[in-house]
């Protein structure tokens, strides 16, 4: 099995090295610097944790994947690191996302409104980094790393699957999930997504009574899926099958405020403004905002 993983990794890296990014340069220094930043500045009042030894955390993280073939790193390799770095989450603030990274983190506001995996120490230290191992010195491959779709047991996917499971298990109280209902390339809910594979099953139903889903739609894009149809029906069934209550909301005001702050001239934003101000005119049975017709 190990030989097969090495051969597979070699084939992936040789055939695609020109387009692959290797381990992030100075990853050790970035990792340890983030660790100090997290504890001393960024999250010290929002998500306080017991003091961590940043060099020790790096050693555990490095040990998990270093001197391994890039396609031969199991989720269990990270168990010791995840156990050492995990922290308690505030009740009623855990937020998950799928296919909607930027908006989800604007909505969560770096742990102030909600807490995402990337707001925790585990997620913050590894977020946006690339890494993979090699069997010879220095134990990390700085030339090219496989992607999640290239091979099983890829170093970063194994990490994020474990991190997602750990985060879900720490959730207390109702949780929120944000999904994208206007992406033509990915359905709003996929059972093979991180939420579908690891986070939903990782929730402790004795501590998490409900999942509230926020379905967002890009401004000007078609609403391919809304609450109550498409894959969101499957999501509801999966949530309820685990014994939790399911609720769903399409483009709540709090999300529209964020979207319209960036693109105030979009039709949806003009409509929302007109409805809020009462600037409406009637054409047959259709309500048309005077603000738009202007």
From TrEMBL:
Signal peptide start and end residues: 1-19
Underlying gene: LOC106059411
SUPFAM superfamilies, A to Z: N-(deoxy)ribosyltransferase-like (SSF52309)
Listed GO MF terms: NAD+ nucleosidase activity, cyclic ADP-ribose generating; phosphorus-oxygen lyase activity; transferase activity
Pfam family, one: Rib_hydrolayse
Highest taxon of the lineage: Eukaryota
Name this protein carries in UniProt: ADP-ribosyl cyclase/cyclic ADP-ribose hydrolase-like
Protein family (similarity comment): Belongs to the ADP-ribosyl cyclase family.
Lineage: Eukaryota, Metazoa, Spiralia, Lophotrochozoa, Mollusca
Keywords assigned: Disulfide bond, Hydrolase, NAD, Signal, Transferase
InterPro entries per the UniProt record, alphabetical: ADP-ribosyl_cyclase
GO cellular component: plasma membrane
């Amino acid at each position: 099995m190990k030989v097969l993983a090495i051969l597979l990794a070699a084939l992936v890296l040789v055939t695609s090295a020109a387009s692959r990014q290797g381990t992030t340069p100075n990853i050790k220094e970035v990792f340890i610097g983030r660790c100090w930043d997290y504890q001393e500045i960024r999250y010290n009042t929002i998500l306080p944790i017991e003091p961590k030894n940043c060099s020790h955390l790096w050693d555990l993280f490095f040990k998990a994947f270093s001197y391994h073939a890039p396609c031969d790193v199991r989720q269990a390799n990270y168990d010791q690191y995840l156990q050492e770095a995990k922290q308690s989450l505030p009740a009623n603030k855990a937020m998950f996302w799928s296919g909607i990274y930027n908006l989800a983190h604007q909505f969560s506001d770096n742990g102030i409104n909600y807490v995402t995996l990337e707001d925790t120490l585990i997620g913050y230290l590894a977020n946006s980094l690339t890494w993979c191992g090699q069997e010879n010195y220095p134990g990390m491959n700085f030339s090219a790393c496989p992607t999640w779709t290239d091979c099983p047991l890829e170093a970063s996917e194994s990490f994020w699957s474990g991190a997602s499971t750990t985060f879900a298990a720490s959730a207390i109280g109702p949780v929120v999930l944000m999904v994208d209902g206007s992406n033509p390339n990915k359905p709003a809910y996929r059972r093979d997504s991180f939420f579908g594979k690891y986070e939903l099953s990782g929730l402790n139903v004795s501590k998490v009574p409900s999942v509230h889903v926020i379905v967002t739609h890009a401004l000007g894009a078609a609403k391919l899926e809304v609450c109550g149809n498409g894959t969101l029906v499957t999501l509801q069934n999966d949530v309820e099958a685990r014994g939790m209550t399911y609720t769903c909301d399409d483009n709540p005001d709090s999300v529209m405020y964020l979207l319209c702050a960036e693109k105030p001239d979009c039709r949806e934003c003009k409509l929302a403004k007109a409805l809020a101000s009462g600037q409406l005119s009637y054409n047959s049975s259709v309500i048309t905002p005077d603000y738009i017709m202007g």
